[in-house]
Amino acid sequence: MAKAKKSQPEKFEFRAEMKQLLHLIVHSLYTHPEIFLRELISNSSDALNKIRFRGLTDKNILDPNADLKITITLDEKKNQFSIEDTGIGMTKDELINEIGTVAHSGTLEFLQKLSKEKKPLDGQLIGQFGVGFYSVFMVTDEVTIETRYAEADSKGYRWTSKGEGTFSIEEIDRKQRGTKILFTLKEEAKEFAEEYRIKDVIRKYSNFVDFPIYVDKEQVNRVTALWQKQKSELKKEELDEFYKFLSNDFQPPAGFMHFNIEGAVNFKSLIFIPDTAPPTFFREDLEKTVHLYSNKIFIQDNAKELLPEYLRFVKGVVDTEDLPLNVSREWVQNSPVIAKIKNTLVSKILGFLEEWSKTEPEKFKKFHQNFGPLFKTGINTDFTNRDKIIDLLRFESTVTEKDQFTSLKNYVSRMKDNQKEIYYLTGENMDIIKRSPNLEYFREKDIEVLLLTDPVDIFIIPSIPEYDKKPLKSIEKADIDMDVDDKNREEALNENLSKSLIDVFKETLGDKVEDVIESKRLVDSPATLVSGKEALDSSMERMMKYMDKDFTGSKKILEINTRHPLIKNLSRINMVDSKSTILRDCIVQLYEGIQVLNQNLESPGEFIKRMTEIMVKATEK
Ligand code: ADP
User: Does residue 370 sit within a domain?
Assistant: First the structure.
């Protein structure tokens, strides 16, 4: 009876999410169906890495002396494809749980969104989302996996599925450890039964896989540890190819570094800076940054301990002789060797970027645009390298050309003789920022102001209280030293008139504002709002409100421009009738108008109504 049961395949259902995902994969158009091969090879390579690693300490594995390799067999006549590895294999549980679930939450939603936009799905993404195996359904309607886990008492299993919601598993007689995946190609994918095509794809995506890949007895990839070479021996094509292999990027990198470090710590490393941010960049969990090797043996492919979060955009390899061979993940986490490598790497990468900023300004700019928002956060997390990071920051300012940036150092070199502070203004976008009345004084006096629109800036600027002993100051603050020309004073309302008008402003606005004062900074605008000395600037407040709905923020100070014709008119009305409705309406309108500019007005209905009334009065006669 037991025997009969053994030959009876057991049926299983994929989980709901998996079914939807499979439906999407099977029924969507792909730009790169060839990716399936890269994904299968990459799974085999992972399985081979696992057994090699395990074999270092465990001599009881199945087939301890088997060659570590990947073999691809093609049958052009029957359109058949198979790939087999001598890796760790899978247990029955793994077949059920690993091949049958979506490992990363949100994957389905993300792929569905892309598919809804009716764009052809980029096969490349499938692999990056940890569902690489299923990319086979781009090229076939039914897949078989035969596998045996690398333990002497394990059993062999066959898994089959049409990708339509169910799969089945049966026990088979399999002598050797490892996994074989086989299928018949769909009509439109039959090119993948052709030897030259498969070899081409291997060279394109899998040339640097650590284990030999055979197609009809011929080894196709090169298996060279490129980072072990001398820098002078490295060729550009080779490096580009290696980068593409590591990163799954289609474009060559923007730049690379090669280190051969000897001394307190020993390691060789190749580090690349991508040309563009990958589509998965926002999903930190999916990004593979630096691969860690110990004496050419692969240890792990996303060694987070090797680099701080803010440098997560680089790709590369670190190979060290200083780790014990049976290194575990926990060991890596707490290792002083890794900590030393990390320090050296960080300082080398920052040095490289510094060099780039001088010799490759265009590349540096692109790096900043791609990865700046992440990179900047280093200021708040890497205190050792804070000053270096600050020097690498770039900002737009009132003097930079469109899409050009300045460093704080260059800003300081342009400061006026009597200028003691570095000025900045934050805002949602350049359009809004450039219209801020608070800039008028600075424009007139030709004083440079940094214009910050990246939301990250709002968080990092408070952690740079000064640069080169010059305090950084938001020009939204009330306590800014400003010179006012005598000529301007002559044009302004006299002290009595202005005091009387200010009283009416205060009375009308009541506790909406902290204070009303005469402005020194305004040139063309009648009024502006500024923050008190201790208050947050308005972008910071917006951010706080966003995070905490109950956050009310602090009251602002209203500054009025007593040289402005509108303010002068209001003063005239005030002389005649300080209770006049039009005077009061104009005051509220001025105040709310500034809130409109700052995108901060909560009740635009009232604002518009009042504006209509004012227009009616202005057009009455
Ligand atoms: P990912 O590789 O990103 O985890 P996949 O869908 O490609 O996602 O594979 C799912 C899992 O199936 C792998 O993590 C691994 O545990 C297992 N697997 C796939 N192919 C093999 C193989 N050739 N040998 C051993 N295990 C494999």
Answer: no
